[in-house]
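Extended Data, panel c. Modelled sequence:
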Amino acid sequence: MSKADLSQDLLAKFIDHTLLKPEASQADIEKLCREALQHKFYSVCVHGSRVVQARSLVEDSGVKVAAVIGFPLGAMDADAKRYETEIAIDMGAEEIDLVLNIGRLKEGDSKYVLRELRDVVEAADERPVKVIIETCLLTREEKILACELVVESGAHFIKTSTGFSTGGATIDDVKLLREHVGAKFGVKASGGIRDTAAALAMIEAGATRLGTSAGIAIVTGLSAGGGGY
């Protein structure tokens, strides 16, 4: 996708403006939300304990609030993830970003993974669920299996990365996910997307959403000559 295809406002609608650092303060969340309102990002993505605050700051603006679940490892019990999802929804979360149980996936326990995903989808009560599969930790075959399970679960997006592991989104991974979830399923690229060129390349590869803390640099770079690649 080229710069000519997008305005700043349209590019902003791909972006989940994200702040998931453990040390993030109330003032940091306020800043995140102000930036999202100013630049018209699709959503802010925060930890569960910040959902109420974020929702109060962006309510009625069109900016949504996404909450992470099982973040960043995904290794807790499935029932804990379901409960965490229920709480996030009760507090006002409009989207859920869930870390899949990576160890269970890698050992081929598809039954466990699928049940966990379906439980969270049910708890989200028809709100979009994005499943983080941590592509940097998976083989090609495991990524394809993850695609199959995420689609079967009733979730709405497959997402590359937490940004807290050994690597983030890559063009090849986004293309692979797009190939195996189909043309209409959501693909979110996340982790290491820092500039306009990287964002446009991810969209061209098949991403329909971008998770990044660099959203301002990405959208302002569109008009500042930072989008060529």
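The longest helix spans residues 26-39. This feature is highlighted in the accompanying rendering.
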